[in-house]
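Researcher: Sequence of Glycosyltransferase follows. Predict its structure.
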Amino acid sequence: MMEVAKENMRQPAHLLIFPAPLQGHINAMLPLADALSFAGSLRVTFLNTDHNHRLLSFFSPSQYSRFSLRPNLRFLSIPDGLSDDKPRSAYQLTELFHSLRTHSVDSFRALLLAGGNKDRDGWPPVTCIIVDGLMPYFMDEAQALGIPVLAFRTISASSLWVYLQIPQMIEAGELPFPADADLDEHIKSVPAMEGFLRRRDLPSMCRKATKADDKELQLFTNFAASSTRSKGLIFNTSDSLEAPILSQIDSIFPTTYAVGPLHALVESITSSSVSASLLAEDRSALNWLDAQPYRSVVYVSFGSLARLTHEEFLEFWHGFVNSGHRFLWVVRPDLVAEGTAAVEMAGLEERVRLVAWAPQEAVLRHRAVGCFITHSGWNSTLESAAAGVPMVCWPWAWDQLVNSRLVGEVWKVGLDMKDVCKREMVESMVRAAMEGEKAEELRRKATDLAVEIRRSVGEGGDARLDFERLLRDILSLSLCASIA
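Model: Prediction complete. Tokens:
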């Protein structure tokens, strides 16, 4: 179908960006919208679900105020199909994405058929779309209307490469493997990762699979492959971080763009940062950090989706306390699966601070932060790498296990305590990252990586050049759509 394209004759370029309705995905894709709209040569619509649009406008009003001054960037939203009081946490993701597929596609199509003008404000029709790779059904809908689509994968290139190689691992007999298998055995059938990828580093669904046709295994494989149907593939990464893997992906996707870390790219281009929080940020955490000595604080955050058992929470707590170091811990209200995370704070007030949510990028850049205990989500990993802060990784699920291996074994800017959260291990890891020669070595390597990241997003750097190529290609695709 070409209804939209036929109406677009010689219209100005109008890009629509649609992230999956999750905190981490919005955090990755909003900076891209910021950078592209700042270039000034196209109009950009950032599309959210109604639910997340309300949260962003309430908890990140300063961003809406800043973006409102840019006439070529706007925000629209469509329903996600769930009631307002329905939870949208990690344990409801299947229901959320099913609802998007069955209820939101019609709203998305109607928006495009209306020319992208939900409020009929005179904007030109949409001429190009960047859609989250987790939602290929929206990509298919747009392409059926004759609108060119680029896919954005918010995971690391290494993680996507592992997903793409699942059929090869099955064919080689490396998947599935027995529950009692040696998890330290290396995987040999994933090109460019043979030297460091182990069974324990594979995404969580690979570990759980007991047969080759496991439904979750096939689902993630199909999602990974679906991006090949797009006009190009965008990554929040750069050659400085994942050059060998990007080279492998280029053999499958002839048009790829490695434009990250996007939060650093935006700062390099616009001299400002982007905050897109769906929760209330406790900025008093920064005031507390101001009173702490240089590199004395362990910052702890397991992201927006991870859940700990009460036992795991207490093991981390005792490990942190027993290390003797100061720590700032983001304890979301829903972090502990069994309920409230209650601990005894008596005598610890001077060196312990618990907050419900924090402005993470600002925290990681603070002079008082000496290391970062992280779930290894890709955004968190990139923010820490760009800030030059060593990491201690405890990956919770999915692709995070691949990322933690990059941190510990490939970049060597952190420690990977995958599969273990006993208090003795936590204490040992904190001490190793904060004290002595090992800590100094991690800091040197983390600083070197941060310098390389700044080079890549700066003028003439590989990420900046890929961003400029992406902008040119969006304009070219838009022109083709407008005259089709």
